[in-house]
């Protein structure tokens, strides 16, 4: 009886783990697709610069937050920004 309960718990945990791994992989794939789209749209020839831009202003690259009216984006002119423009 105890053995069967433990076996069921193990199966449930394995199923939940597989579901979470699948969901994480889907989110990761969407994120990578978004980065590739941004590279194409913003003409970032150097992906490192794009990653720095995303790290500096994550709100600007978050699709859910872009539709928020209270979004405040602070920009600074740097040589890299001017080169990309």
UniProtKB/TrEMBL annotation:
* Domain of life, per lineage: Eukaryota
Q: What is this protein called?
A: Uncharacterized protein
Q: Which organism is it from?
A: Tanacetum coccineum
């Amino acid at each position: 009886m105890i053995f069967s309960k433990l076996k069921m718990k193990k199966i449930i945990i394995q199923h939940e783990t597989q579901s979470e791994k699948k969901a994480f992989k889907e989110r990761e794939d969407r994120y990578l697709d978004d980065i590739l789209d941004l590279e194409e749209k913003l003409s970032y020839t150097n992906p490192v610069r794009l990653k720095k831009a995303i790290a500096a202003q994550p709100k600007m690259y978050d699709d859910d937050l872009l539709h928020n009216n209270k979004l405040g984006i602070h920009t600074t002119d740097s040589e890299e920004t001017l080169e990309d423009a």
